[in-house]
Each structure stands twice: as structure tokens, then as C-alpha cells.
Amino acid sequence: MDKLLISNFAASLFALLNPLGVLPIFIGYSAGEKRTVQRWLALFVALTALVLLLIFFFAGSSLLRFFGISLDSFRIAGGILLLIIGIGIVNGNSSQAAKDLIAEDQQSDFREAQLVYRKIVIPLAMPLLVGPGVIANVILYATEAEAKKDNALFVGLLGTIIVICFLVFVLFLSGRWLQKIVGDVGLNIVTRILGLIVAAIGVQFMITGLSNIIVNSLTPEILKVR
User: Fold this and answer.
1) Where are the membrane-spanning stretches (predicted)?
2) What pTM, to 2 d.p., does this model score?
3) Cα 83 versus chain centre, distance
4) Other residues' Cβ atoms within 10 Å of the Cβ of residue 101
């Protein structure tokens, strides 16, 4: 099992999901709700992100084969996408969603959380959390594990997705507390750092993909000369 690949996947997935950057939006959506409702909302959003990630994780390689896209080509395209998203995060150009909430009514906390969740699942869960960069990243690493035919690596990546989604749940659950500790400025600084990491990962993806394509294209020519 490639532990370095798993650690890179964990870092890139957490950075791309950017729960700290989405946290202020979640707080804005749930600010007027009771604590119990906020907990249910955190759970609903985290589970939605988990389901979406698992879908793309298991179906990603099949999509590549269906469209006839090579791994290196997808790596370059994903790298460009990650670079653009990373630059956007560093510059603070994140999406801003409307903060309209459903009026409170006499109902259970679970039911009230369901109603609010239906209102905010788009754009909070997708695309703010599970956006195109996350999708490209998950497909890329899943395809990498399949290419290496390493079942342990595949399970490790799957476990990483579950752990990261659990961290998203914990962060949203403790959103108010975290905001009081680090403040808006602290959240903004952490978000910019995550954006820089995303941009660097995107550049590395492009370098690796271009290197592989160049090497693969030159190898036949070298063999012909010999």
C-alpha cells in the first residue's frame, strides 16, 4: 500500500472540500436554528458529501474508459482545474450563496432540519463542498489505485474518504465554537493556505501528466533508433 499516495489524497481532498472555507456559509444558514437542528444539518450535509464522493470514487474509472480518456490526459486536465480553483481560493473568489432560511414552525427538530436541508443542500453540499475539483481529484486517485491493482491502496483511499467526511461533520458540528476561537480573520487565513496547497497539487498533477506523455511518446522513437 502506497502510504504517500494516501496521505497526498487525504491532504488534497480536505483542501478541495475546504470545509473551513464553507464553514462560515454553513453558520450563516443555520444561525437562526436551534442547536439540535444545527447538529442534524451538519450530519445531513456530511452524509450527502460522502454519498457523492463514493459515487464518483467507484464510477470514476468506468467514466474514463467510456469516454476514452487516458489517465495522464485526465491528470493534466484535473491539474489545470485544481490550479484555477486554488488561485480562486487564494484570491478569495469563493461562491456566495443566498442565506434565506425557512421560517420556523411547530415541528420536531429532525423535521425542521430536513426542511432547512432541502433548502440549502444546493449549493452547500454541491458545488461548494463537492465541486468539480473534488470530483476530478477522487476520480484521478481511484483510477491510479485501479491501475496499480492494489486492493489495499483502494481500501485505504476509501477509508480516507470516510474519515475526511467525518471531519467535515465534526467541523460543521463545532462551527460556532471554532468561529469564536479563530475568528473570521483566522478562518480566512486558513482558507487561503488551503487554496495555495490546492494550486501546488494542481501544478504537480500537470507536471506528472506531461512528463509521462513525453516519456511515452519518446520511448518508441528511442527504440527505433536502437
Assistant:
1) 6-29, 41-67, 73-92, 120-140, 152-173, 193-215
2) 0.69
3) 14
4) 16
